[in-house]
Amino acid sequence: MRVVQAVRFGEPEVLVPTEAPAPVAGAGHVVIEVSVAAIDFVQTQIRRGFTPGPPLPTPPYVPGASIAGRVRAVGPGTDPAWIGRRVVTHTASGYGGNAELAAAEVEALIPVPDGLGLPEAAALLDDGATALALVETAGIRPHEWVLVAAAAGGVGSLLVQLARVAGARVIGAVGSTPKRELVRDKLGADVVVDYSSPGWPDRVRAATGGRGRGSATWAQPPQQAIRILGRPERDLNVGFIRAGTV
């Protein structure tokens, strides 16, 4: 089968298309015909030889942990009804997703409902779980203010929508005009601020009735926001940034 292999740690040029043996479904596992292999920030950092948590693989290796596709084969003792179903999941090893076929544990399979595309399902697998966990942990209440930093990003864009569904009033913080339009017009934030603009803290204070913090819940807050506006009532941090090519 065809795969994309990282022959060593480094920039994108270390990725090389090649051939590899197809996986075989063992007990409790399935083989998925991969339609979409998500590329997230963590995977790009692992490819560069930096790990934010998962252990580093030994090159050469096939990157990719989050995949979506159809089940092609099942292992011994696994319900054959899975064959042909559209699913989204993580690979069994945490790698190997950038391939035509990949193995996954049957217990980790999430059926993709009709009407949802496989690319969208793959995009939701990790960012969606993170956003849901943040919203549940925050205990967002109706009518309170929620400030979402990086509101146009993968997790941030979901947080804006989930906070709105929870009845909160949402301030989306972004860093460019196109992102402001996306967060305001498509995602439904009540207020959008550009934290590359010196006056953005004043807009936050004005929107929250001069409080700036108080009843505000912060998700993914930039440290600049805390320094300027003060510690919020509930402060949730997720993610990291490391300079360099992805």
Automatic annotation (TrEMBL):
Q: What is this protein called?
A: Zinc-binding dehydrogenase
Give the top-rank taxon of the lineage listed in the UniProt record for this protein. Bacteria
Enoyl reductase (ER) domain sequence ranges:
10-246
Q: Its Gene Ontology molecular function terms?
A: oxidoreductase activity
Q: Identify the Gene3D superfamilies for this entry.
A: Medium-chain alcohol dehydrogenases, catalytic domain (3.90.180.10), NAD(P)-binding Rossmann-like Domain (3.40.50.720)
Q: Species name for this entry?
A: Nocardia vermiculata
Query: What Pfam family is a match, any one?
Result: ADH_zinc_N
Q: Write down the InterPro entries for this protein, in alphabetical order.
A: ADH-like_C, ADH-like_N, ER, GroES-like_sf, NAD(P)-bd_dom_sf, Zn-ADH-like_protein
